[in-house]
Design goal:
The complex is a heterodimer of chains A (326) and B (297). In chain A, 71% of the residues lie in helices and 0% in strands. Classes of the chains: A mainly alpha (326), B mainly alpha (297). At the A-B interface, helix 2, helix 3, helix 6, helix 7 and helix 8 of A face helix 2, helix 6, helix 7, helix 8 and helix 9 of B. Chain A: It is found in: Cell membrane.
């Protein structure tokens, strides 16, 4: 990393930069003319920028590292304030307790199920909505766009939506967490913009060869849309994984609690004693050990950390697809 | 007619979306009539009696109304002032970094909080800031200072709320600005260097003006969200000790509407929120266009 700092050169960063952005690629941002040496002013500027960035990155990361360290530290070590970034008096008891708790594992399963099924349906319905709207030869698409954009600007709010979900008998089913959020107008617009970048000549050629609309969509458009499908899928998946208010609102059955809602129930207890503790300065109310709380958080976070590196290249690329237009 | 026949399958594809938006967006909009009714759960929407503007009158008479509106506006305004510029600043810094590995590592770390739920982030915030065991207060004690009750002190709670929002969203927000910066014509930078511009000067005279349209569009969107503070962050960070500043419109609607069954009153509150939101977006869009920029529509 340090070596990279010293040896980076404009030409390598320019050509390297252009690659990952694919068809959008325009010359890289770093293409300012390179002098052989930095002026003293430039050096000061670089030092300031680099250190500010490193500090900010560290601040961003620190709470996670501290929580991870807490999850594997003994309660006494945490209470005496010895834990910073590394576990002190290493123990795995808290983690074992969480993993042995069947209700936590069940809610983890519910969340995985919800994320997989929900995201698949989200993608399917977003594709079939965005594709027709991307076709300039489709009459009435302007009206449909307006019909959709209105929903982004104005809504009935929480109570009327709740009553709709209730009257459809979706309460206490996982469908309540999937169906009301099935299509996001915002994601449809991003995907529609992407479909529009596929040259129309391609369609004309396929039509010549006797290819219908559906076949064209499935055989030509979708295979060309990998990056944007991955990105939008990721947006939906993260949404499902992280959402907790839907579960709080629509689900009472403890067997159907999502991981985040379950987590809320566990941590809420501890929040209550945080405020009590603050008022009374007594630690007697600390029902849940600090390391146990940290362990729950870690369990809920690890699945994301595992898939994160694999998805990163897609989401950076894909979000650019949607945003460059702006 | 011929057109309809040729693309009938495309129209069929739009049917599910039409049904979806009608049922889950337009029907709830129609459900706003509850605000004008004395809603009775057992008699349903159409069986309940009309009550005219009684719910709105009651809204202005409840003491909480002023408080939740003030909190919502205050937290959002702080968000706009602090959270909005943060990703711009960060993107400008990232763009100045020439080491690709540092840039990459830093970006990965900065995006991370965006992928965590507010429950996880809230849990971490509570743990790190706890007066007894929290690491921040430990450090303060080592420095010989008194511990701070971050989550139980109103001022500190507001600060924590705002900074935790920066923590969650600033890194992710840079993506869109970095994309806009990538699109800048490098000839502009070359011209600026020939004119003798230093790096700060180039940022001010080339980079910033070039990403202005993106900034404006995102600003309009942010203004549009001024009143509609999401519910997940305040709900995750709130606690009873600071409810005086942590109760916002959405948490109030949830607490009083859903939990206490006051459907009519809270629908009215939610409706006022939606209407103000709409006005703000339209106004912001109008001004953006007047100022010579591009609007959202």
């Amino acid at each position: 990393m340090v070596g990279g700092t010293a040896s980076s050169s404009a030409s390598s960063s320019a050509s390297g930069e252009a690659k990952p952005t694919g068809e959008l690629a325009r010359p890289a941002p770093a293409t300012r003319p390179r002098k052989a040496k930095r002026t003293p002013g430039e050096l000061v500027f670089d030092i300031l920028v680099y250190s500010a960035l490193i500090v900010f990155t560290f601040i961003c990361l620190f709470p996670f590292l501290n929580t991870l360290a807490n999850a594997f530290s003994s309660s006494t070590a945490i209470q005496t304030g010895k834990v910073l970034l590394w576990p002190v008096e290493f123990q795995v008891g808290s983690m074992k307790m969480i993993l042995a708790d069947s209700s936590v594992m069940r809610s983890l399963f519910v969340t995985v199920f919800l994320t997989v099924v929900g995201t698949t349906l989200n993608l399917l319905f977003t594709i079939i909505t965005a594709y027709p709207l991307s076709r300039r030869d489709l009459k009435g698409r302007g009206i449909f766009m307006r019909f959709m954009v209105v929903t982004m600007l104005f809504s009935g709010g929480m109570i009327p939506l709740f009553l709709v979900v209730k009257s459809l008998h979706l309460l206490d089913t996982l469908w309540a967490l999937i169906i009301p959020g099935l299509i996001s107008a915002f994601n449809v617009i991003i995907m529609k913009s992407f479909f529009q970048t596929i040259p129309d000549e391609l369609r004309e050629a396929s039509v010549m060869d006797g290819c219908g609309n559906m076949r064209y969509l499935i055989r030509i458009v979708l295979p060309l849309s990998g990056a944007s499908l991955a990105t939008i899928g990721l947006f939906y998946a993260v949404g499902h994984w992280n959402a907790y208010f839907g579960a709080v609102l629509y689900i009472n059955d403890p067997d159907l609690l999502t991981l985040q809602a379950k987590l809320r129930n566990i941590l809420l207890l501890s929040q209550m004693d945080t405020s009590l503790e603050q008022m009374t300065m007594e630690s007697k109310f600390t029902v849940i050990q600090e390391s146990l709380k940290a362990a729950v958080i870690v369990v809920a976070t690890v699945p994301i950390l595992i898939v994160y590196p694999f998805l990163q290249k897609y989401f950076v690329k894909g979000s650019m697809l949607g945003s460059v237009k702006g | 007619m011929k057109e309809w026949k040729k693309n009938y399958d495309l129209y069929l594809l739009l049917v599910p979306a039409a049904v979806f938006f009608i049922v889950f967006a337009y029907v709830p909009m129609g459900g706003l009539v509850i605000a004008f009714k004395d809603y009775n759960l057992f008699r349903g929407l159409w069986g309940s009696d009309w009550s005219g503007l009684a719910n709105f009158r009651e809204m202005f008479s409840i003491p909480e109304f002023f408080r939740i509106t003030r909190n919502t506006l205050l937290l959002n305004l702080l968000g706009l002032i602090v959270c909005f510029p943060a990703p711009i600043l960060l993107a400008l810094m990232l763009n100045e970094v020439r080491s690709r590995s540092l840039k990459k590592i830093s970006q990965s770390m900065l995006y991370l909080p965006h992928f965590m739920s507010w429950i996880v982030l809230g849990g971490i915030v509570y743990a790190v800031l706890s007066p007894k065991y929290g690491v921040i207060n430990q450090i303060l004690r080592w420095l010989g200072m008194k511990e701070i009750y971050f989550m139980a002190d109103q001022t500190w709670w507001i600060i924590t709320y705002t900074l935790s929002a920066v923590w969650q969203s600033a890194g992710w927000g840079t993506i869109i600005y970095l994309a806009a910066i990538t699109a800048i014509d490098p000839a502009l930078y070359e011209a600026a260097s020939i004119d003798g511009a230093g790096r700060i000067r180039k940022i001010a005279s080339v980079t910033l003006p070039s990403i202005m349209p993106t900034i404006v569009i995102l600003f309009i969107l942010a203004v549009g969200n001024m009143v509609s503070i999401g519910i997940e962050q305040p709900l995750a960070l709130a606690n009873s000790v600071v409810s005086n500043v942590s109760e916002v419109i959405s948490t109030y609607v949830y607490r009083v509407g859903i939990k206490q069954g006051e459907f009519g009153l809270t629908t009215a509150v939610g409706m006022v929120q939606s209407v103000i939101n709409l006005c703000l977006v339209v106004a912001a869009n109008h001004f953006a266009k007047r100022a010579g920029g591009e609007g959202l529509w």
